[in-house]
Fold this protein.
Amino acid sequence: MISVAGVRGIVGDSLTPEVVSRFAAAFARELPPGAIVLGRDARTHGPLISGAAAEGLLSAGRDVVDIGLATTPTTEIAVEHLRAAGGVIVTASHNPSEWNALKFLNARGEFLGSAEGAAVRARFEREDPVAAAVVRGTRRMESSALEWHLERVLGLDVIDVARIRARALRVVVDGCASVGGIAVPPLLARLGADVIELDCEPTGRFTRELEPLPEHLGALSGRVREHRADFGVALDPDADRAAFVDGNGVPLGEEYTVALGTRCVLEKHRGPVVTNLSTSLILEAVCHRGGVPLHRTRVGEAHVVAKMQAVRAVAGGEGNGGMILPAAHYGRDGLVAVALIAQLVSAGGRSLRELADELPRTAMIKSKLDRPDESWPRTAERLKAAFAGMALDEADGLRFSGDREWVHVRASGTEPVVRVIAESEDEERTRSLVARARRALEGVRAEGTS
């Protein structure tokens, strides 16, 4: 799968070392001169895919700075710090363990935009796969990238390190057996927290479903209760997403990450906020209370970042647990999210549950199903008929909205599925919105296969 989120596939099937090497070489040839940073998550086939990516970069004549096991935001910051020409992150994020991927970064340490990504794909498809540069690049290891990241987060003006340290938090960290487990505990330790680790050894042998959704966080919830922690945090495999569990072991839901993180930022800096079309109405309430505008974009970090830069947003992100703080860097960052939550809990003397309860309660459902067998235009017509009377936004799939309710139907850019996400103030109403969308999609599929 090739999208604004990168190049993803099942290792040994669609994603082979040859494909990886060719894509990396194509990417390198689209960049201005300079070295390229390479980082990876802890998936067991990470060394194989990372090695193939390095080979492609080297064959294109590029020097490679290999930072090894690193979170996605750590790799982004390393590109900035080293003033590199770009970066490659080997991670399939929340996809199942048999998947891996290449995510490409420009010289600003940001994901490629649609046009840049299309240029890489076009070069991949047209170039001789065995073409090599006259002078082969060199590869060196760099071990300081996490330190650069920690310094960036701890230096944010919205983070009062002394105040957080005085609070003496106790936090359980679910590292998802990947790179979040080697990045978040050191951050919390520097914030004076007592850290209890859960799956923080980066073995890549996952013990839970990878998206940090409430239904996947049973072990974290139990550990929070056992240790009477102030809160728990779960990361996805590349740690650009974070979801929190309160002191009673009850998951907040990943939508609260950007809402609470933005609230923390707005207490010090007022300005526009940006999110995607699938993010909860809770963030709208935060922005309304803060007296600032909220802009929505297509789903995908690159789209959100582009809009943030255009409107000079002070905060933003995506409702999947991805907080973006421009003062740190333009990318989703689980470490930034953890620091902001620690700041909120420490500054006001309230628990994480109390902070969450100050925000509106909504009923949100996220579901997915196989893509219909017919073309999207015909699918879209069925959906439009099913939701006639609701306002329609076609910027990214179809988003139908009414008074304090909406449903968004779009093809995923990271999995071969259609995502159906809906929200209202009543769970039964939300379920009816999802059911209506599913009936329309399933009706189309049945007709297409008859």
